Structures are given as structure tokens and as C-alpha cells.
Amino acid sequence: MRQLRSIVKEAVAQASIVAKFLCFVHVTDSYLLSITHVLGPSMFPTLNITGDVVVVGHLSHRLGKVGSGDLVLVRSPLDPTKSLTKRIVAMEGDKVTFFLDPTRNYSSRSVVVPKGHVWIQGDNLYASRDLRHFGPLPYGLIQGKVLLRIWPPNGFGSFGQ
User: Fold this and answer.
1) What are the pLDDT digits (tens) for 85-140?
2) What percent of the chain has pLDDT over 90?
3) Is residue 34 a contact partner of residue 144, using CB atoms and an 8 Å limit?
4) CA atoms 55, 39, 142, 97: torsion sign
């Protein structure tokens, strides 16, 4: 009986360590930093079409430390199960002029970004589905600021800003 009690006590201690570790990983991934694989043509040439692995900081946007020019990870306003990586072009109150469809004509439109919103676009205007299609993005859909590229190795480094 004593041996069984000792085994159970050791199992509970080990399970407690694993549970604490999993909680630490969850908090780190959700609220501090996460590693994300981003791919697609919309951010070319800043990000590779075939994909990059980036570090995303989840504190910057909560502290108001994002601004025009920053790369951000956002929840898609069209499909909440997907995340997008885009560049902030304007903050609330800024006036933005953009081409409606740069592949067909050069007609443009201007809007003022409303309070509590940002304007994001892909760097590759010809292959980006962004706010030109669905309007200003609520600030609450920003998931984090892209801080660092870690893969591929020849592109390792920060994005500045």
C-alpha cells in the first residue's frame, strides 16, 4: 500500500509539472510571443511567396505600440478562422487614397480611417486581397506585430520600425 501511495504521489507531481508547462506555453503563445508560418503572394517582396516563419509579439498592439509601416498579424474580417499578415498603411483619423483595382484601371478613392480602426494592405497590390475589398479593419482584430523573420536563414532578422 505504501508503494502504491508513493507511485501515485510521484505521478501527481509529474502531472503537475506537465500542466504548469502547458499553461506556460499557452500564456506565452497567446499573450507574449508566438511563431507563425506565413505564406502567399500578398506581402511579396517583404515576405516570400513560398513562406516565411516569423515571430509575432502579442503585447505591442495591446500597448498601442503599432503604427503605420508595421507588419501585423490580423484575424480575417471575411473568415475569422484565418489570419492574415499585412502592413498598416494608416491609423485612425488618417486619410488614405488607394486604387480600387490596380490591375484594370487607375481610378482611386479616398477614405478617412474611422476611430478604433486601421488601414492595412499587402505590399504586393496586384496579388493582395485587403482593405481595398473590405474596408477599415477594427483595431480589435489585430493579433500581434510581426517582429522577426527566423526562416529562411538567409532572411533572418527584424523588420525594423
Assistant:
1) 889 989 998 888 777 666 666 777 788 899 999 998 888 777 777 666 777 889 88
2) 9
3) yes
4) positive
The DSSP bridge pattern shows strands 95-99 and 108-112 to be antiparallel
Q: What global pTM score does this model have?
A: 0.77
CB neighbours (10 Å) of residue 130? 20
DSSP state of 114: P
Give the end-to-end CA distance of the chain in Å, rounded to a whole number.
63
Do 64 and 89 form a contact (C-beta atoms < 8 A)? Answer: no
Please give the positions annotated as active site: 42, 86
Distance CA 20, CA 78 (A): 36
Cα dist. 100→74, 78, 90, 125, 136 in Å? Answer: 22, 18, 17, 10, 14
d(CA 48, CA 1): 61
Closest CA to 120 of 53, 74, 64, 51: 74
Q: Identify the three-state secondary structure at position 89.
A: strand
Grid cell 491609423 — which residue? 91
Q: Residue 102: how many CA atoms within 13 Å on its side-chain side?
A: 14
